[in-house]
Amino acid sequence: MRKLLLSLIAFAAVQITYAQKTDKRLAGIDTFITRVLNEWKAAGVTVAIVEKNKVVLAKGFGYKDYENKVPVTENTLFAIGSCSKAFTSSLLAFPMKDGKLDLDKPVTQYLPELRFIDDDLNNNVTTRDMMSHRTGLPRHDLAWYGSSTRRDSLIYSIRFFEKTAPLRRVWQYNNFMFLAQGVLAEKLCGKTWENLVKEQLFTPLGMGASNTSMHDHVLAPDYSFGYKEKDGKVVKMKFMNIDAIGPAGSINSNATDMAKWVMMWVNGGKFNGKEILPSLYYNQAISSQMIIGAGLPTKEQPDVFFSNYGFGWFLANYRGHYRVEHGGNIDGFSTSTCFFPTDSIGIFVSVNQNGSAIPSIIRNTIADKLLGLPYKDWQRTQRNAYEKALATAKEQAKADSTQRKLGTKPTHAITDYTGTYTSDGYGSIVIDQKKDGLTAHYNSLTFTVKHYHFNYFNFIPVDDGVDADESAALKGQFNINVKGEIESLSLPLQSGVKDIVFKKQVQTIEVSKADLEKYVGEYELPGPTIVKVYIKGDKTLMVFVPGQPDYELVAVKTDLFNFKALSGFSVKFDKDENGNITALNFVQPNGTFKAKRK
């Protein structure tokens, strides 16, 4: 009896009216959605439609488990990717309301651990700038994608990212800035981002099935696998855990729960008459904070125009109606969440297909029906755009092949390219020899590394053990220092900035303190200049040259030490036939200089 009473109370708390039958305006929508899935070779999709306080439709189509033909339901969880961003920005509405956060003060006042590449950004970037993608930073996505790095480490890496525009000059999408918003919310509220999303948004909205991690996704009673279309077939993808960058896109939800989320936005931030989001925040969130681009109407789409951004929302004029929307894409899933505030209509579409056009096709078709707009063939529009993109990619691949200088060879033996290469902002790449070739491992990504020309190599992504087409390759250049050693690897990981440089880590050897003792002493350079070698602590060999700082040395071979802080500089010790050290040689880019032992 008590369980029944609790159920009745829970039901009463969510006063949503569900349509008893399909709305006449949506006649034929089931058939249409099924046809779209078939034509795009997709497994399944989940759809929610709300109007004012009514759920017009919450339904699944196709399969959540394609191999076993298990159907999608309205309760099947899908990864919603960047549709999570509006949740994260909304968390800042609460400290903003309480006077703990001013969106227009430098964010470093609240989050001092967040630093940028220069003081102009450090002193001026505000929370509003981060919420509306106008900090001047491009995406730098490969610095986090597939990484298991902690959030504090990702926040630290931001200081190394090159910007491509002055502050507030250009709109540039940036996931790191939404990570920073999540960390800011944690700092201001004293709880994890995951707990804040649950307590301040999921629970008051009754979104009981939604979660914030792929770990929880696969433990749920009703969840979808992710897929991609490959050669006309539906192929399962591995789940991508993005907890590290979670505030930018790690929420998983379903049609039932997302109907409540969009219903709250349709109703001005209120749910069942209760304020969830303060009106001051709500109005700013769906107002233009930054111009994305010209957003001019085109010949093909004369009634879709202006392109701006609010707080975690894209804004546009959709055929004479004000639309607030955001997409989401993460491995195996594509999503669109949108609402029309003046029409009181909200639409959520999520498909278990990677990089799919399906959400926009279904979203626009539903919107046209509910808004009573003239028919448009959105299916054909997206298919034309898709085929045009494929043709462009082929042309680019063809152009790339004409640049290659055939018959060239790398400057070094293949084994010399192996090792660990490290970047301050992007982490480490490990290159191994595999049979007669090279393989690179970066975060959770694997690349086959093939010679292109000279010291340029193609880094070709490997997916489930199969190399992608070489048109998808990144071109990396191995750089050589004055001593002829491979010193670093440059990769074009972010357009608009210089190639990211990964420095090759020198393999060091362990030398005992007793063995280091034989190097300790004074050495005389011509001049005369007295150089001192001494041991710091237990096992750190140091060298002191008058007028310069003390330099730490690291052992790389017997009697050979590299300067830890200076690339291309090393010390080579000479010894006689009895093994006694007689001199040291400073080996550096401008020559080798010998100092005899006193």
General description of the model:
- This protein has 598 residues and is of the alpha+beta class.
- It is built from 15 helices and 33 strands.
- The protein has 3 domains: 15-390, DD-peptidase/beta-lactamase superfamily (Beta-lactamase), CATH 3.40.710.10; 414-504, Lipocalin (Beta Barrel), CATH 2.40.128.600; 513-597, Lipocalin, CATH 2.40.128.50.
- Strand 29 and strand 30 (560-563) form a beta hairpin.
- Helix 2 runs antiparallel to helix 13 and helix 3 (85-91) packs parallel to helix 8.
- The protein is elongated.
> How many DSSP helices?
15
Helix content: 10-25%
User: What is the beta-strand fraction?
Assistant: 25-35%
User: Mean pLDDT across all residues, rounded?
Assistant: 93
Domain Peptidase S12 Pab87-related C-terminal: 404-503, 510-587
Domain Beta-lactamase-related: 36-356
Keywords: Hydrolase, Signal
GO molecular function, one term: hydrolase activity
What are the SSEs and their pairings?
Blueprint: H1 2-13, E1 17-18, H2 29-39, E2 44-51, E3 54-65, E4 70-71, E5 78-79, H3 85-91, H4 93-97, H5 119-124, H6 127-131, H7 151-157, H8 175-189, H9 193-205, H10 214-217, E6 227-230, E7 233-236, E8 252-253, H11 255-266, E9 270-271, E10 274-275, H12 279-285, E11 290-293, E12 304-309, E13 314-318, E14 321-330, E15 333-340, E16 345-351, H13 358-371, H14 378-403, E17 419-423, E18 427-434, E19 437-442, E20 445-453, E21 456-463, E22 466-467, E23 474-480, E24 486-491, E25 500-504, H15 513-516, E26 521-525, E27 529-536, E28 540-544, E29 551-557, E30 560-563, E31 570-575, E32 581-588, E33 591-597
Parallel strand pairs: 1-3
Antiparallel strand pairs: 2-3, 2-16, 3-4, 5-8, 6-7, 9-10, 11-12, 12-13, 13-14, 14-15, 15-16, 17-18, 17-25, 18-19, 19-20, 20-21, 21-22, 21-23, 23-24, 24-25, 26-27, 26-33, 27-28, 28-29, 29-30, 30-31, 31-32, 32-33
Helix pairs in contact: 2-13, 3-8, 7-8
Pfam families: Beta-lactamase, DUF3471
Keywords: Hydrolase, Signal
Protein name: Serine hydrolase
